[in-house]
Amino acid sequence: MVFLCWARPSPEQQKACINKSGTFNYDTKYKGATMKPVSSIKEDKELSKDGYLVNHARVLVGSGLQTYEKGKAALQNWRHFGLDWAFVDPKTPIQSGVKFCVCLKEFLPWVMMPLEVVYVKDSKSAKTKKKKGVASFGFGSGTLQGHLLAGEERFSIELDENDQVWYEVLSFSKPAHFLSFIGYPYVQLRQKYFAHQSANAVLKHV
Q1: Which CATH architecture has domain 3-203?
Q2: Does residue 9 sit in helix, strand or coil?
Q3: Which of 7, 78, 107, 132 pairs with 64 at a CA distance of 20 to 30 A?
Q4: Domain boundaries defined on the chain
């Protein structure tokens, strides 16, 4: 089952995709795994043994609390998907359990990829005389039946102890359909390209 559309998918078509998507298509033991530190994911031998590949990108987008808040708002409004060839309905609430579609234009047809928000993390520590305040916001989404890949992806924005603001994309995935299996090297390149384009989209809003 693959959700294709010859024109830019309408809200109705996205809703139909979500209604048909069903449950997660990856092992539930990995549900929420992207909450772990990047190093833990990269060194997870069981994840690797099960055929999952890790994709990670971390980009400096500025400094200061104001930049962080703008970056957080960008993620909350799906600005990181504000691309000509990839989008998510910006009205989609970022809440655990919410299903949504990532719409991608690949060659001639658009592909609708169903996912579900697995978790949302929003933390902030107070600023003291000796230590600057740190904050982070992020959410992870898991792939559903009908997605070309199986796995999970996390988008996050972080204000670190050096007052720098970082945008990060972390995912683990493997092919879930013969189309993605035969074209997986291309899929991996697209993931890296998306991370770069997504970071640029966030930069425009900070």
Answers
A1: 2-Layer Sandwich (3.30)
A2: coil
A3: 78
A4: 3-203
